[in-house]
Amino acid sequence: MKFPQKFLLPAALMALLGVAGSATATDTLLVTATVSAACVVGTSPVAFGAYNPIGGAAASGSGNVNVSCTGTVGLFVDYSISLGKGAYGATYNDRQMANGASRLTYQLYGDSGSGGACSVVWGDGTGATSTVGGSLLIVLLGSTINRQVCGTLPANQVGATPGGYSDTVQVVVTYN
Known about the structure:
Blueprint: H1 8-17, E1 37-44, E2 59-71, E3 76-83, E4 96-99, E5 102-105, E6 107-110, E7 120-121, E8 132-137, E9 143-153, E10 171-175
Antiparallel strand pairs: 1-2, 2-9, 3-8, 3-10, 4-5, 6-7, 6-9
């Protein structure tokens, strides 16, 4: 087979100049972020103690939610704390502790922010519930705020069987 002459000049030029190939160029991309504050949450339990469901008296107890933040000194961190319904209650108005199939109804309250300690149902801010929050000033070694959780166990829950009752409530802290 004869090589066509029309390809001779381009082939000669390619041989003299080299065949064009691929090339690679690289660089780096810097990715940064600034964390102005980091917060953690801790709790102490709400304990009602011994309760007589037939005795006619309500019981009360209290615990705490602690929010600790570190970050830029002098920074004000706005935070909001919400509490869940618990493992056994279908609604915030129906929080329940369990002992097997037996239940005790209870409620959790927080500070309304207007001086009323334990005056609002502490929930997620929906319906008749409120969240509890405020601002926290970051100091050199970090800052902690303790918010009281008040609980009531209504009187005359005569269907309760003897034994220990408990529930687990999720605590969520939102901050910026």
